[in-house]
Amino acid sequence: MARALAGCHANVVVLDRDVGLAEKVLATLKGTKGGHQAAFIDVLDKAAVQQAADKVIKEYGKIDGLINGAGGNNPKATTNPEQSFFDIPPEPSSFVSTLNLQGTILPSQAFGRCMVKQKEGVILNISSMNAFRPLTRIPAYSAAKAAVSNFTQWLAVHLAQEYSANIRVNAIAPGFFLTEQNRFLLTDKETGGSPLAVTRSSTTRPWPDSERPGTWWARCYGCCRPRRTS
């Protein structure tokens, strides 16, 4: 996303709790025309989020868009042969819920306030296809992403009705993207290719395109602005 925006000559600020990781992303933007920066943020710390928003305003004068990309799961909040659903402790589930939902709400508050002053802006949240078709074993993550989808729809209407119809809030709901976090699950360790761990018998119905192994897909949805009645 950062590279795509930079390719459109946008000024991109990459915010991360680990500034070193943000700087690695920044390095991939070399050669583009925008003025890019890496900076610190902790999406669960309201003061740190506000400081990040203030820094962007100070450097650039305005904020055109926010992508809420923070999120994740906790292995202790999953079911597995060693841990049934009934034995999942509350703390890991609470962490997953807080990270995904509050990690979206707090930046939306700080950066959204700037957009209200400008009377325009775009907020893009990252939901998941788990919000619509939950995967097995990850109840906390699926529920948290469903909450992100719900919040996105609520915030879209709220900002458009109460402040400006030129403030848009949407979300994308991706399927699987290959990252360092899930690479060991999605690729063969020896060859780096896709493991044929999922098959479907020719005697059953064929794979729909959206379920075919190796197919990555995303769904974009949201309420951009209320329908005018006059």
Task: Summarize this structure briefly.
With 230 residues, the protein is of the alpha/beta class.
Q: At the fourth CATH level, what is the homologous superfamily of the domain at 63-177 and 212-230? A: NAD(P)-binding Rossmann-like Domain
What is the fold named in CATH at topology level of the domain at 63-177 and 212-230? Answer: Rossmann fold
Category from helices, strands and their pairing: alpha/beta
Averaged pLDDT, please? 86
Spatial strand arrangement across the major sheet: 3-4-5-6
SSE sequence, one letter per element:
HEHEHEHEHEHE
| Helical amount | 25-40%
Supply the CATH architecture of the domain at 63-177 and 212-230: 3-Layer(aba) Sandwich
Distance between the termini: 37 Å
Alpha-carbon Rg, integer: 20 Å
Instruction: Profile the largest sheet.
Output: 4 strands, mixed
- Global geometry: globular
Question: Number of DSSP helices?
Answer: 6
Please, what is the oligomeric state? single chain
Would you spell out the secondary-structure blueprint of this structure?
Layout lengths: L1 H6 L5 E4 L2 H9 L9 E4 L5 H15 L4 E4 L21 H29 L2 E6 L12 H24 L4 E8 L8 H4 L31 E4 L9
Parallel strand pairs: 1-2, 3-4, 4-5
Antiparallel strand pairs: 5-6
Helix pairs in contact: 3-4, 4-5
Commentary on this structure:
The protein has helices at 2-7, 19-27, 46-60, 90-118, 139-162, 183-186, and strands spanning 13-16, 37-40, 65-68, 121-126, 167-174, 218-221. The protein is globular. With 230 residues, it is of the alpha/beta class.
